[in-house]
Design goal:
heterodimer; A: mainly alpha; 8 helices; 6% strand; B: 362 residues; alpha+beta; two-stranded antiparallel sheet
Chain lengths: 176, 362
């Protein structure tokens, strides 16, 4: 028997036991088997595609999804379409920018949309995370054109946001 | 102080987690927890420029260096490694296949006991991992929680008040926590109960997969149980779901199956495991797959008291050290598949024909 992905003989025969459609058998050569086995327990792109498909069934029309696909994050520039294809987001701000679109997805994957575990003692406020990424870029550009005065101004601004973020976080913890 | 390091010395040692000690270590090989974390001021890895990656790597390294009690941390620049060295670290479970195969600036920091490692620029900026021998998830959680606190003291993480720790993939968001327990379940395989056991687990948010599979059986009979969801539960509850609820049940089934095998056909079983040991200690060439298959039988034989002069730590070590990159590192040269089979047989013979003690583990 040949490997499912190449011409080499299939020496590994792997059964995925927890696939939603029942056990699934894979026939792979040593090289592809290693790659397959050492991936994370479940393929994120596949489970996201599955969750999005469910979402579509739950009332989102194809047209609505097509419009959503065009939507882009102002910070990292990733489109929802790109996210849907790769299963990976582009930057922390995506969770804010695509928040309404991600909520049904998170519900499908985790059956929850509310973190209730550990919280860092200091964290930047959600909005200022976008600013942090943008400012860092501007700082790097300033350094590149040897405009050190601007770069140093931006660095101070970055520090100010990081510190303000820390106190915001403490405040939100106090409210709980 | 963090030091740059090669790791040729590692090839001759075994990680702490392979010692075959710790609770339930006749069935549970290792307990592992990993946390996914990202820096607040960079895009996620896929949208990072080469400069961003370099910058993340340098920032994290400098921050780790500022943590006082991080002594003797080995810092390995993965980008500079040969393919065989990357494969070696993957076999050792110190880095993921994904980071081994990636491109650009990336690194791993490892403590001397190999119990924890921090991957930099994997799918997330940071992947913190703690691994213990046997079923010891509570200890693993305590260790990783403290490690995470120390890093957090130096690094501003990407965090959202509602969604928790932000990760590149939404399947990890929230706690960013993945608990994985590696189990050795030969008796459930022999008695053909394994599929039934796992089918009964499907509805409780855990993922189970066979490792090193062959046909309907799994060479080595290793299975990994992990939590599927990461958002909406406290870390301790996710740890408890796997460690207190799911895994003990599987252990109980495996024990029952082992008892059954012993009662039903003590002689057949004894014959089977002794033959396996015979093949491993006398073969002149042997494939990785065949090695796994027989080592699994021997491991069960040792744990059932049918083989009494081979420590289980040696067997655990052999599972890792007979893999391709390990054999080549131990030999200090590249070997083709057929040379590896000969080298593997020699290595097994050396470790199994004489009477080695736990002291020979290192």
């Amino acid at each position: 028997m040949k490997c499912q992905y190449c011409e080499k003989p299939a020496t590994f025969h792997i059964t995925e036991l927890t696939e939603p459609g029942g056990p699934q058998v894979m026939h792979l050569c040593e090289e592809h088997a290693r790659g397959f086995l050492q991936k994370e327990a479940s393929s994120p792109a596949a489970s996201i595609a599955g969750a999005l498909a469910k979402q579509l069934n739950l009332g989102q029309t194809k047209q609505e999804l097509a419009e959503l696909d065009q939507k882009e994050c102002p910070v990292c520039g990733i489109s929802f379409f790109e996210f849907r294809n790769t299963g990976r987001l582009g930057c922390p701000f995506d969770y804010t920018h695509f928040s309404t679109d991600l909520i049904p997805l998170l519900t499908n994957i985790h059956d929850s949309v509310e973190h209730c575990g550990k919280r860092p003692h200091r964290a930047a406020a959600a909005d200022s995370q976008a600013e942090l990424i943008q400012l860092r870029r501007e700082m790097e550009e300033a350094v590149e054109r040897e405009d050190y005065e601007t770069a140093s101004g931006i660095r101070d601004e970055l520090r100010r946001i990081e510190e303000a973020g820390s106190s915001d976080q403490v405040a939100s913890e106090d409210e709980e | 102080m963090i030091r740059d390091s090669d790791f040729d010395d590692l090839a001759h040692k075994s990680g702490e987690w392979l010692r075959g000690t710790g609770p339930e270590s006749d069935i549970v090989i290792s307990s592992r927890i990993r946390l996914a974390r990202n820096l607040a001021d960079f895009p996620f890895i896929r949208r990072c420029s080469d400069e961003d990656r370099i910058s993340i790597e340098r920032t994290v390294r400098a921050k780790m260096d500022s943590i006082d009690d991080w002594r003797d941390i080995r810092y390995i620049d993965i980008e500079q490694l040969s393919e065989i060295d990357r494969q070696f670290l993957v076999e050792r479970q110190l880095i993921s296949r994904e980071i081994a195969d990636a491109e650009g600036s990336r690194a791993v920091a490892i403590d001397p006991s190999e119990q924890y490692s921090v991957m930099i620029n994997e799918e997330d900026h940071l992947r913190i991992q703690v691994m213990h021998s046997g079923l010891d998830l509570k200890l693993a959680w305590q260790s990783i929680d403290q490690l995470d606190d120390k890093l957090e003291g130096a690094i501003l993480y990407a965090f959202h008040p509602q969604f928790g720790y932000l990760t590149a993939c939404p399947t990890n968001v929230g706690t960013g926590l993945r608990v994985s327990v590696m189990l050795h379940l030969p008796a459930l395989v022999i008695t053909r109960q394994i599929d039934k056991v796992f089918r009964s687990m499907q509805r409780i948010n855990v993922t189970v997969r066979g490792l090193y599979g062959e046909g309907s059986q799994y060479t080595g009979d290793f299975y990994q149980v992990s939590n599927q969801i990461t958002l909406g539960h406290r870390e301790q509850d996710l740890v408890s779901l796997v460690g207190d609820d799911v895994v003990p049940r599987i252990i109980e089934y495996e024990r029952k199956a082992r008892d059954f095998l012993v009662k039903q056909g003590q002689q057949d079983l004894h014959d089977d495991v002794s033959r396996a040991l015979g093949i491993l200690s006398t073969a002149k060439k042997i494939s990785s797959e065949e090695t796994m298959h027989y080592l699994s039988k021997v491991r069960m034989g040792v744990n059932l008291g049918l083989i009494d002069d081979v420590p289980v730590g040696i067997i655990n070590k052999l599972f890792i050290h007979t893999q391709p990159a390990h054999l080549q590192k131990l030999q200090g040269r590249l070997l083709g598949s057929s040379d590896r089979n000969v080298e593997r047989a020699t290595y097994l013979q050396r470790h199994l024909s004489g009477k080695l003690s736990d002291g020979d583990l290192n």
